[in-house]
Design brief:
It is a single chain. The protein is α/β, with parallel strands linked by helices. It has a six-stranded parallel sheet with strand order 2-1-3-4-5-10, with helices on both faces. It has two domains: 178 residues, Rossmann fold (3-Layer(aba) Sandwich); 79 residues, Alpha-Beta Complex (UDP-galactose 4-epimerase, domain 1), CATH 3.90.25.10. Helix 1 links the parallel strand 1 and strand 2. The chain starts with a strand and ends with a helix. It contains ten helices and twelve strands. 43% of the residues are buried.
């Protein structure tokens, strides 16, 4: 039986991966920056395939502590690659980067494709550009194959309320249950984004690990553009509540991309993947998940 090693197993996508694919997670609490502990774990697990999800992925935190973000996302990836090399690994690895690496994309270039230049605008995105370049180099020189993913916005049950749509779902559920006044706190909701259900993302990663080209880079996205305001209004309608929407300055992010949508043509061409879960189902499942947590 193929042994899949999963880093970042306790994260949003990691938990979904474990539910769908037999995986061996790294030991709880293991830090990718701890080379000795990582080498020992890899030597014990002896993986056949690797899905590398572990990262510091919260953009505001990357501004607050860019050194830590780079240590985890770049040097943690380098430590993993060296640990795999030390056991003579000859399998395949999926590195999960980010669609945020494209930076500010002109509207004329939408939907953005993999060949578009990378212009990262925050420390998190810079760390992912560097780690992706590292993985490409290793895919050409290490003796094992590496495929790179650039996922865009995720959505679905289990996501942290640090992310906008999930936070809205939490606030709306609290309002519906009478746990807070009928007023929603929001940031800039007149931007658009490309959202993919986490369960579709999991399928994309599994297919890329199996069928992606060595050294290839793939957008993981829905190819559909939704405004944050539109999704907020859908959540409100699904919950059947009447609320006031208050924009809070502290929730506004600098250098905000006004519109974003990407193409999954390369992913579909090489793996046959396409998104299956409609946005309405993702939103309803998100509300249902919060109701279970809050009751």
């Amino acid at each position: 039986m193929v042994k899949h090693l999963l880093t970042g197993a306790n994260g949003f996508v990691g938990k979904t991966m474990q539910a769908a694919l037999p995986c061996v997670p790294l030991p709880v609490g293991l830090d990718l920056r701890d080379r000795a502990a990582l080498n020992a774990a890899i030597a014990e697990i002896q993986p056949d395939m690797v899905i590398h999800l572990a990262a510091q992925s919260f953009v505001p935190a990357s501004f607050e502590n860019p050194h830590e973000t780079f240590d985890i996302n770049f040097y943690g990836t380098l430590n993993l690659l060296e640990a795999l090399q030390s056991i003579g690994f000859r399998g395949r690895m999926l590195f999960v980067g980010s669609g945020d690496t494209y930076g500010q994309v002109p509207e004329a270039a939408l939907p953005v494709r993999e060949e578009h230049p990378l212009h990262p605008r925050n420390p998190y995105a810079v760390s992912k550009v560097a780690a992706e370049a590292l993985c490409y180099q290793w895919s050409q020189t290490s003796g094992f194959e590496i495929v790179m993913a650039r996922p865009f916005n995720h959505i679905g049950p289990g996501q942290s309320p640090r992310f906008a749509i999930t936070d809205f779902a939490r606030q709306i559920t609290e309002i519906r249950l009478g746990q807070r006044p009928p007023a929603l706190q929001v940031g800039d909701i007149d931007v658009t984004r490309d959202f993919t259900d986490v369960r579709d993302v999991e399928r994309a990663y599994a297919l890329l690990l199996e069928k992606g080209r060595n050294g290839g880079v793939y957008n993981v996205c829905s190819g559909r553009e939704h405004s944050i305001r539109e999704l907020l209004q859908r959540l409100i309608a699904l919950a059947g509540v009447v609320v006031r929407i208050d924009q809070v300055p502290a929730r506004l992010r600098p250098a905000e991309q006004r519109r974003m949508v990407a193409s999954f043509e390369a992913l579909h061409r090489d793996t046959g993947w396409q998104p299956l879960i409609p946005i309405e189902q993702s939103l309803q499942d998100l509300l249902n998940d919060w109701e279970k947590q809050l009751l």
